[in-house]
Amino acid sequence: MKLSPKLIRLFLVLIICVVSTSSSFGQQVLEYSAHYQATANGIAATAQRSLTKLSDYSFRLTNRLQASIAGQTLATLEQSSEFEFVDDTVKPSIYSYVLTGISKAANAIAYNWDAQIALSTEDEKSWQLPLSSGVMDQLSYQFALRQFLISGNTASDVEFQVIDGDEIELHRYRIAGDALLSTPLGNLNTVKLERLRDTADGRTTTIWLAVDWDFLLARIEQVNRSGLKIELQLESALVGGVNVSALK
């Protein structure tokens, strides 16, 4: 099968931009690192996600994904977000996204909370967007999503304002219930979430988070309009210095 640069980039973008992180409202934020297996129509990839504490209230969330076929690296994606977590509020300061290899792309966001302006750049283009409390990027909102779950909120739906290029999008999720999930690591107790989209969008995204491990990402499945199915599965992880283990 011929794999075009467009397909490879689609795989990387879809697999990296869904969810990740570890923490709890009003409690200690735990650093973590996790390794994943990913597949899409014959393309294999490995992914690493980590949360690092920079100071008492600031953190860096990073994603790195490398796609390969027949042992040859096709593309590498590096993504990071730095933010503060104060008074149960996530306040990002800088975000970056760099794709290299057979396909190339670069995005960045700089937040000026005093002026209430975010400067969003994509390759050679740039835009100024209005900032208000709750506006985040592709990674910091993922942190906030898991805070919503860890806090024990009983609402069935949650939504976030997320900067994407020249606009601020609304990302909505529905909690679909509990599930016993089989992963390369073994069976895990998880909560299942579904991304809510317009019916005409044609895409579906389902996420499973490990309940016993601070709602660590355990699995993602996404199907796009053309039927391309992308999967990401947890292979190993360390949360708060403890190795993640399966149910016995």
From TrEMBL:
InterPro entries: DUF3108 (IPR021457). It comes from the Bacteria. It holds the Pfam family DUF3108. This is DUF3108 domain-containing protein.
